[in-house]
Specification:
By secondary structure, this protein is mainly α. 62% of the residues lie in helices and 0% in strands.
Length: 117
């Protein structure tokens, strides 16, 4: 009986994607893994193992597709957070002013604005 490695890999990948979103991991990890496996695929192909290279190529596709899905989900979540205006339970988040707190202190009089002598 043949072991369905591709289906097992796909199941583990989906489980990782769910965990990644739950734990807030960086979605680019899957893309980096796919690129590393792409190099392994090229080495396997250069070594003459065509069957292994073809199997690795399928896994590369799964990893890159999963990474793109996670990136899209992250972008959608960021857009939803941005459209809410950053308001939390206490109301909108205050934006700090670019003006100095003390009006008597001018920007040119700040010690960091003078070059060291």
């Amino acid at each position: 009986m043949a072991v369905p490695y591709s289906e097992i890999f796909l199941g583990l990948l989906v489980a990782y994607m769910v965990y990644s979103e739950w734990a807030g991991l960086d979605s680019r990890y899957l893309i980096a893994g796919g690129l590393v496996l792409l190099v392994v695929t090229a080495v396997a192909d250069a070594a003459g193992s065509i069957a292994a290279a073809n199997a690795f190529a399928v896994y590369v596709f799964y990893l890159l597709a999963g990474g793109v899905v996670l990136l899209v989900v992250d972008q959608i979540r960021a857009a939803r957070r941005g459209s809410s205006g950053g308001s939390g339970p206490g109301g909108p988040t205050p934006v700090p002013s670019a003006q100095p707190v003390d009006e008597r202190e001018r920007a040119a009089d700040h010690p960091l604005d003078r070059p060291e002598e």
